[in-house]
Write a structure and sequence with these properties.
The protein has about 230 residues and is α/β, with parallel strands linked by helices. The chain has helices spanning about 15-25, 45-55, 60-75, 90-95, 100-110, 115-120, 150-160, and strands spanning about 5, 30-35, 55-60, 125-130, 135-140, 185-190, 200, 205, 220-225, 225-230. It has one domain (about 5-230): Metallo-dependent phosphatases (Purple Acid Phosphatase, chain A, domain 2). It contains 7 helices and 10 strands. The strands form 2 sheets. The protein has a 5-stranded mixed sheet, with helices on one face. The longest helix is centred in the N-terminal third of the chain and has 13 residues, at about 15-25.
Length: about 230
């Protein structure tokens, strides 16, 4: 069996479609995503449509977190309307074209299809994948070395209960390779933009700027071979 894990997409539907077609030609059994499917790029709705159609198992990114919370509680911080978050293209992709934030949010509740609501609410903070006796811990942002020293499953449970943001909004020091070393397994994550994927024994970083900034690439890693591909 072989799987592929895709890095951050950020609304770049056509690049994602090309990646999926390439993975199908390589006869990949299952496709996973580190999250940040939406915002910044112009086709967030279409990206989610494609992930649903292809049954891509996905972690919650920080750019999905606001959507999930809004769909659950109908509340959103004004900060998410800033250019830094890049939510405007997501609103537009769902047909919310008003310049009035209150109208946008009202329209969003009406315009997000039911299958999208279920998809967003089903996103996981962390995925544990076992493949040929190797464990891969997939999160959106990677887990920093400040995490407490527990057995792997106990650590995940502890972080989930005490500080869930660790899974989707942390910033481990990639330049110095300072990430938490799971006792049994390898981390796979996105969130921090790198010029090309970084693959080590203990961690794999996959965000190469798709939909956001140079190098504008969508990257994936095929496991267990650890073959990296870019579109």
């Amino acid at each position: 069996m072989s799987i592929a894990i895709i890095g951050d997409v950020h609304g770049d539907y056509y690049r994602l479609m090309r990646m999926i077609n390439l993975l199908h030609r390589k006869q990949i059994d299952e496709i996973f995503s580190v999250g940040d499917l939406i915002d910044r790029g112009p086709e967030s709705k279409q990206v989610v449509d494609l992930c649903i159609a292809e049954n891509i198992k996905t972690c919650m990114g920080n750019h999905e977190e606001w959507m999930i919370n809004y769909l659950k509680d109908h509340k959103i911080s004004p900060d998410y309307f800033s250019n830094a978050w890049g939510t405007k293209p997501t609103f537009i992709s769902y047909g919310c074209t008003s310049s009035n934030p209150n109208v946008i949010l009202k329209d969003l509740l009406s315009n997000v299809p039911d299958d999208h609501v279920q998809f967003y609410k089903s996103l996981q903070a962390v995925m544990k994948i076992t493949l040929e006796d190797q464990i891969y811990w997939v999160t959106h942002s990677g887990i920093s070395p400040q995490a407490v020293d527990l057995e792997d499953d106990a650590l995940i449970d502890y972080l989930y209960r005490s500080s869930p943001w660790n899974f989707y909004f942390s910033f481990p020091n990639l330049k110095e390779g300072k990430l938490y070393n799971f006792k049994n397994g390898c981390q796979v994550f996105g969130h921090q933009i790198v010029q090309k994927p970084i693959v080590t024994d203990k961690w794999i970083a996959l965000d190469t700027g798709c939909g956001t900034c140079p190098p504008w690439k969508l990257s994936a890693v095929i496991l267990p071979e650890r073959e990296v591909i870019q579109i």
